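PROTEIN DESIGN WORKSHEET
SECTION A - STRUCTURE
LENGTH: 107
C-ALPHA CELLS:
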C-alpha cells in the first residue's frame, strides 16, 4: 500500500460496496447481473472488489486447497468485466472508474 500511496485504512473511506456478480456462475449470468447492478446504481462512490484472472492456454491454472475452481471463476470475471455489454453501460451512464489512489480522501 505504501508503494502506491494508498492509506492502510481504506475501509474508512466514504464509499459503499456493491457486488456485480452476486451468485452468478456462468458468463452470461455474470454479464446480465452486472449490467442490472450498474443500470441501477445511485450516484456516489462504490467499491467493487473482485479477483480477475486469465486462464492461458498451455499453462496450468494456479489454485490452492479449498479454491480448486478459482481459476475458472476468475477467468469468467475478466471476461465479464471486459464484455461489450458492461463497457456500454459504463459509457452510457457516465460511470467513472477509479482506483483507491484516485480517491485521495486521506490527503
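SECTION B - SEQUENCE
RESIDUE ASSIGNMENT:
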Amino acid at each position: 500500500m505504501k508503494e502506491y500511496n494508498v492509506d492502510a485504512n481504506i475501509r474508512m473511506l466514504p464509499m459503499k460496496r456493491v457486488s456485480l456478480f452476486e451468485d452468478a456462475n456462468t458468463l452470461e449470468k455474470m454479464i446480465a447481473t452486472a449490467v442490472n447492478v450498474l443500470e441501477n446504481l445511485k450516484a456516489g462512490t462504490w467499491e467493487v472488489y473482485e479477483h480477475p484472472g486469465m486462464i492461458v492456454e498451455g499453462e496450468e491454472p494456479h489454485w490452492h486447497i479449498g479454491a480448486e475452481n478459482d481459476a475458472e471463476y476468475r477467468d469468467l470475471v475478466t471476461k465479464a468485466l471486459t464484455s461489450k455489454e458492461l463497457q456500454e453501460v459504463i459509457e452510457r451512464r457516465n460511470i467513472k472508474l477509479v482506483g483507491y489512489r484516485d480517491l485521495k480522501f486521506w490527503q
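SECTION C - NOTES
The CA atoms of residues 21 and 47 lie 13 Å apart.
The chain is about 35% helix and 5% strand.
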